[in-house]
Amino acid sequence: MKGIIDRFEGEFAVVELDNREMKNIKKEILPEGIKEGTAIKFVNGEWQIDQERTENLKSEIDDLAKNLFE
Questions:
Q1: The domain spanning residue 17 has which CATH number?
Q2: φ and ψ at 64, to 5 degrees?
Q3: pTM of the model
Protein backbone atom coordinates (compact mmCIF):
# COMPACT_ATOMS: atom_id res chain seq x y z
CA MET A 1 0.00 0.00 0.00
CA LYS A 2 1.33 3.45 -0.93
CA GLY A 3 0.12 6.98 -0.41
CA ILE A 4 0.93 10.63 0.18
CA ILE A 5 0.39 12.60 3.38
CA ASP A 6 -2.33 15.11 2.52
CA ARG A 7 -2.73 16.80 5.91
CA PHE A 8 -2.80 16.30 9.65
CA GLU A 9 -5.95 16.38 11.78
CA GLY A 10 -5.32 15.99 15.49
CA GLU A 11 -3.62 12.67 16.14
CA PHE A 12 -4.17 11.46 12.57
CA ALA A 13 -2.46 11.89 9.24
CA VAL A 14 -4.89 11.95 6.33
CA VAL A 15 -3.28 9.93 3.55
CA GLU A 16 -4.36 9.82 -0.08
CA LEU A 17 -3.71 6.27 -1.23
CA ASP A 18 -2.73 5.45 -4.80
CA ASN A 19 -6.32 4.38 -5.54
CA ARG A 20 -7.46 7.94 -4.53
CA GLU A 21 -9.05 6.64 -1.32
CA MET A 22 -8.43 8.77 1.78
CA LYS A 23 -7.28 6.95 4.92
CA ASN A 24 -6.72 8.23 8.46
CA ILE A 25 -3.55 6.82 10.02
CA LYS A 26 -2.46 7.51 13.59
CA LYS A 27 0.61 9.74 13.59
CA GLU A 28 2.20 7.60 16.30
CA ILE A 29 2.69 4.68 13.87
CA LEU A 30 4.26 6.82 11.14
CA PRO A 31 7.99 7.55 10.84
CA GLU A 32 9.37 10.60 12.64
CA GLY A 33 9.82 13.73 10.56
CA ILE A 34 6.86 13.02 8.32
CA LYS A 35 5.15 16.08 6.85
CA GLU A 36 2.52 17.03 4.31
CA GLY A 37 3.47 15.90 0.82
CA THR A 38 5.64 13.01 2.01
CA ALA A 39 5.17 9.75 0.11
CA ILE A 40 4.85 6.67 2.31
CA LYS A 41 4.60 2.94 1.77
CA PHE A 42 3.53 0.01 3.96
CA VAL A 43 6.29 -2.61 4.05
CA ASN A 44 6.67 -5.59 6.40
CA GLY A 45 3.92 -4.36 8.71
CA GLU A 46 5.11 -0.77 9.08
CA TRP A 47 4.85 2.58 7.34
CA GLN A 48 8.06 3.87 5.78
CA ILE A 49 8.98 7.08 3.99
CA ASP A 50 9.34 6.50 0.25
CA GLN A 51 12.26 8.88 -0.20
CA GLU A 52 12.66 8.39 -3.96
CA ARG A 53 8.96 8.97 -4.66
CA THR A 54 8.88 12.00 -2.32
CA GLU A 55 11.83 13.56 -4.18
CA ASN A 56 10.22 12.84 -7.57
CA LEU A 57 6.93 14.43 -6.48
CA LYS A 58 8.73 17.51 -5.15
CA SER A 59 10.63 17.84 -8.43
CA GLU A 60 7.40 17.56 -10.45
CA ILE A 61 5.73 20.24 -8.31
CA ASP A 62 8.77 22.52 -8.60
CA ASP A 63 8.72 22.13 -12.40
CA LEU A 64 4.99 22.91 -12.56
CA ALA A 65 5.46 26.01 -10.41
CA LYS A 66 8.40 27.15 -12.52
CA ASN A 67 6.39 26.75 -15.74
CA LEU A 68 3.47 28.60 -14.20
CA PHE A 69 5.55 31.74 -13.71
CA GLU A 70 7.40 31.73 -17.05
A1: 2.30.30
A2: -65, -45
A3: 0.85
